[in-house]
Design goal:
mainly alpha, 9 helices, Serine Threonine Protein Phosphatase 5, Tetratricopeptide repeat, 172 residues
Length: 172
C-alpha cells in the first residue's frame, strides 16, 4: 500500500462508521434489512453484514453498495480487493454520495485495483470536497500539487462535468 494511500486510508477508515450512520435510510421496505446489515457491520460481524447487504447492493441500494465497498476496500471478513471496492463505490458515487466519491478518489489516487489517474482522483475528490468533506479537500489539494498544468486543466473540466452529473441532480 502506498504511503499516501496508507495515510488517507487510516483517516478514511476512522470515519466510515460515522459516515454510514449519517446516510439517510429512507428506502421504505428495504429499511429493516439495511438497518440489520449496517448493525452487523457496526458490530464487526462482517459475514452477516455482507450476506444482508450484498443482495441490497445488487438491487441498487446506495447505502448497501457503499458499505459493501468498504468491506472489500478494507478486507473486512473478505480478502481485501480494491477492484471490487471500486465497483461497489461507483453507484453511490454517481448518485451524489460524497463519501463514495471520496472513496473513488482514493482508489484513483493510489492506483491500487484501478488504473492510477490523477485527473480522476482530482475530479472525484473535488466534488466530494465541495460538498463539505474536509478529508476530500485535503486529498484534492495533495493531488493537485503533483499535477501538470495540462492535467489540472483536464481535471477542472472533468470536475465540472462530474458536478453536473453526480451532484446537481441529487441536491435537495
Amino acid at each position: 500500500m502506498g504511503i499516501r494511500r496508507t495515510f488517507i486510508a487510516a483517516r478514511f477508515a476512522a470515519t466510515v462508521a460515522a459516515a454510514i450512520a449519517t446516510i439517510g435510510l429512507g428506502h421504505g421496505a428495504a429499511a429493516a434489512p439495511i438497518d440489520d446489515g449496517l448493525a452487523a457491520f457496526d458490530s464487526e460481524d462482517y459475514a452477516v453484514a455482507l450476506a444482508i447487504l450484498l443482495p441490497l447492493a445488487e438491487a441498487g441500494n446506495l447505502e448497501a453498495s457503499y458499505t459493501v465497498g468498504v468491506i472489500y476496500d478494507f478486507g473486512r471478513g473478505v480478502n481485501q480487493d480494491d477492484m471490487a471496492a471500486g465497483v461497489w463505490y461507483r453507484l453511490p458515487a454517481e448518485n451524489g454520495m460524497a463519501e463514495a466519491q471520496l472513496a473513488m478518489a482514493i482508489l484513483f489516487d493510489s492506483g491500487e485495483g484501478i488504473l492510477q489517474n490523477v485527473v480522476e482522483a482530482y475530479a472525484w475528490s473535488s466534488i466530494a470536497a465541495d460538498q463539505g468533506l474536509a478529508k476530500a479537500e485535503r486529498l484534492r489539494d495533495s493531488v493537485r500539487s503533483v499535477m501538470s498544468r495540462i492535467d489540472r486543466q483536464n481535471a477542472d473540466a472533468l470536475k465540472a462535468k462530474y458536478w453536473d452529473l453526480y451532484v446537481v441532480p441529487f441536491q435537495k
